[in-house]
Amino acid sequence: MKVTIAEVKDYVGKEVTIGVWLTNKRASGKIAFLQLRDGSGFMQAVVTKSDVDESVFQQAKSLSQETAFYATGIIQEDARSPFGYEMLLTNLQVIKEAVDFPITPKQHGTEFLMDHRHLWLRSRKQHAVMKIRNEIIRATYEFFNENGFVKIDPPILTSSAPEGTTELFHTKYFDEHAYLSQSGQLYLEAAAMAFGKVFSFGPTFRAEKSKTRRHLIEFWMIEPEMAFYEFEDSLVVQEQYVAHIVQSVVKNCRLELDRLGRDVAKLEKITAPFPRITYDEAIEFLHEKGFDDIQWGDDFGAPHETAIAENNEKPIFITHYPTAIKPFYMQTAKDRPEVALCADLIAPEGYGEIIGGSERIHDYKLMKQRMEEHNLPLEAYQWYLDLSKYGSVPHSGFGLGLERTVAWISGVEHVRETIPFPRLLNRLYP
């Protein structure tokens, strides 16, 4: 019977066949230990010379790394293994031998591994990170579907930009100018006026010339928009959503978290509500910590965000940023028009901003005024202006960057390991 490694728990004491690749092996005298993977997981097969034909034993000892074969054997429990099961191999059938696989069990440099990303994905660590990414995506759909959101897919090619065109990839759209989307937000706002609560999940592109461990050129975002939700309402949704995906990973990816050496106890504490601090309070706090370079009206960099978050076990909201450093569409506070009803959610442990969100402007005159202040071409945004002209209501939304969130939850240092094929400032291959 053919099964997968993930299914062997249901076949203890039975003989099964699994299509596998060899990740590593060691042999000593009359016994060989084969480390196997099949995509669904990793496990060990034990080959004992006295239990198999001589040809099978010799073939097992000669297998090279990443050779593909069918492994047949009896499944038994193994308390010494984190996985909990192993195979007593009785037979094998080679499908395709691999020769001189370039990524050996020794240490390799980052650039070498990135050049071989198509093969590096097979490693235990990368497999664990991708499984955690997949769980976050699954839990995302679960959360929004269970809370009455409708998934809407905004376009990737756009004629305008929600936050200006300075960091966008320009292309030609027949005889027109077009850009790769940096956010689906404006289109999601239109959809929220039709469906109430909506969300999107898709790729976004930023032509930002940054080489930090937090930045990618192409990344994926989850962007909800909610009609009749004011600023405070949105913060509640954000903390509930983040807590949901973290606890889903803790529940369903314990093996992967252990493989990465992640401190699960820290993740178990991520429950709503989250602490909050205003921008004004953050500036005062940073001055007390010796950050004399930051002044009111400046945006925060990575060192500032890390300092603010380091004393909190949970993510922390920084709210009410200066209007002047935020996009045109953010609603201003009634009593303080110089600040916006917005918030960034900063992850603990130095992982920085994972969410940016705000209440959106719904007044036609104010929206038009803000567009003019930002020197945006009104004709390109006429459809968006229509939203605040025809039955607009208070509404809010936010965007969560998937890769930064994966990095934080999985505990990996750089976002390049959180997406299958990262696009970086100096990397478009493979």
UniProtKB/TrEMBL annotation:
Its EC number is 6.1.1.22. Residues 130-430 form the Aminoacyl-transfer RNA synthetases class-II family profile domain. It holds the Pfam family tRNA_anti-codon. It is found in: Cytoplasm. One of its GO terms (molecular function) is asparagine-tRNA ligase activity. Its main location: cytoplasm. Keywords: Aminoacyl-tRNA synthetase, ATP-binding, Cytoplasm, Ligase, Nucleotide-binding, Protein biosynthesis. Gene3D superfamilies: Bira Bifunctional Protein, Domain 2, Nucleic acid-binding proteins. It catalyses: tRNA(Asn) + L-asparagine + ATP = L-asparaginyl-tRNA(Asn) + AMP + diphosphate + H(+). Belongs to the class-II aminoacyl-tRNA synthetase family. Homodimer. PANTHER family: ASPARAGINE--TRNA LIGASE, MITOCHONDRIAL-RELATED, ASPARTYL/LYSYL-TRNA SYNTHETASE. This is Asparagine--tRNA ligase. It comes from Bacillus chungangensis. The lineage of its organism: Bacteria, Bacillati, Bacillota, Bacilli, Bacillales.
